[in-house]
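SUBJECT: A protein chain and its fold
Encoding: whole-number codes for local backbone shapes
Chain under study, with its fold:
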Amino acid sequence: MINSLISFVNSLIYSKTLTEIYHTQLNPTISYLHEPESRRYSLCLDLSEIFKPLIGDRLIFSLLNKNQITENSFTRELNFLHLKKEASQLIVNELEKKLQATIMHKDLHRKVSYQYLIRLEAYKLIKHLIEEKEYEGFKMWW
């Protein structure tokens, strides 16, 4: 069940990351960690690695600790490997809330959403590629 939950949340984060990459000039099939392929959005996988613990894992722990997701959230007939529709919708809604939540950005000196943090990471890659500023991996400051 936990693996199914992790896979589902990670796929949502991949999707959001891809959306943010599309708002930049980056090609989502060219990456630096995962093997680039023409039919796979490897850069999306790379950038998602940064945000899975920050957004995904925290969301999963929150859902489990608040008993919003339980054994009853999974389909028994499919060996508890598939989330029920209501549980999937709950997860999507909770993820959206998290992505829209804001924090004060230490460099921009304004509030930005978690979703925008993903785009900012893509912008950092662009600055590195055009040799404007050396890339420094994301670090939580709060």
User: Anything to note?
Assistant: The longest strand covers residues 102-104. The first helix runs from residue 2 to 21. The beta strands are 102-104, 111-113. The chain has a mean pLDDT of 93.
